[in-house]
Amino acid sequence: MTVVPGWEGRYFEDFNVGDVYRCRLGRTVTEADNIWFTLLTSNTNQIHFNNDFARRTEFGQCLINSTLTLAIVTGMGVADVSENGVALGWDEVKLPHPLFAGDTLYSESSVLEKRESRSNPRRGVVKVRTRGIQQEGKVVIDYVRSVLVWKKAHAPTRDLFPEVRDSRKGRAAQGDSREPETLGNDRSPRRGRAVGSTRKS
Q1: Vertex 128: Cα angle to 126 and 134 (nearest 5)
Q2: What's the rounded Cα separation, in Å, for the pair 179 and 160?
Q3: Please, is 180 exposed, middle or buried when counting C-beta atoms within 10 Å of its C-beta (0-12, 13-18, 19+)?
Q4: Where in the chain does DSSP place strands (E)?
Q5: Cα separation, 141 vs 130, whole angstroms
Q6: Could you tell me the sign of the dihedral formed by the alpha carbons of 59, 101, 136, 15, in that order?
Q7: How far is CA 163 from the centre of its chain?
């Protein structure tokens, strides 16, 4: 059997200054996303969850919480930027245009810098600029962040997939030798006696 490797994310060696990565997925942000995230984070600004309040503002409707926008756009870039690293920090976070429920986010990241880590020779530091763009082409978030990225030879995710055991042996060891399709389908009349059934004592 040949195991065909899937996408493993980029390692330090895979980054080149000037490269641009575009997330292949779009993400539509809903009103529920916005309200749940806002309340989960104890944010009391009604511009994010009170439609009556929001209609009286210059926006005319609720704004998507900017930290939710940051979280989604960051997440959209993980496969290309930080799947094999850890964040060191965000810089220059800007919000050029508002985002509303029903808008769809797209994300692109460009590599600004890469260098060896001065304290950890097994990793390197990559700096990217990421932009979140809604469906009409308006940039709604723009930031720079730095990531400490593993070099491929040292990454802990290598050969992580577990060895598959024989499930039949596992069942036998537990004292259950029935075939899989019969498990949970015991129709014995001894089972399922109705609660409150009458018995002669």
Answers
A1: 150
A2: 30
A3: exposed
A4: 20-22, 27-28, 85-94, 104-116, 123-134, 139-150
A5: 8
A6: positive
A7: 26
Computed over every residue of the chain, the mean pLDDT equals 86
* 77 three-class SS: coil
**CA separation (Å) from 142 to 63, 117, 128, 129, 171?**
17, 25, 11, 7, 54
Distance CA 103, CA 133 (A): 10
- Token code pair at residue 11: 């390692």
The 10s digit of each residue's pLDDT in 52-89 is 999 999 999 999 999 999 999 999 999 999 999 999 99
139-148 pLDDT, tens digit each: 999 999 999 9
Burial (Cβ within 10 Å: 0-12, 13-18, ≥19) of residue 163: exposed
- Ranges 78-92, 107-121, 173-187: which has the least confidence: 173-187
CATH topology of domain 12-154: Thiol Ester Dehydrase; Chain A (3.10.129)
Q: First and final CA of the chain: distance in angstroms?
A: 63
> Residue 133, class by beta-carbon neighbours within 10 Å (0-12 exposed, 13-18 middle, 19+ buried)?
buried
pTM: 0.77
Q: What is the chain's Cα-based Rg? A: 26
3-state secondary structure of 111: strand
The percent of residues above 90 in pLDDT, for the chain, comes to: 68
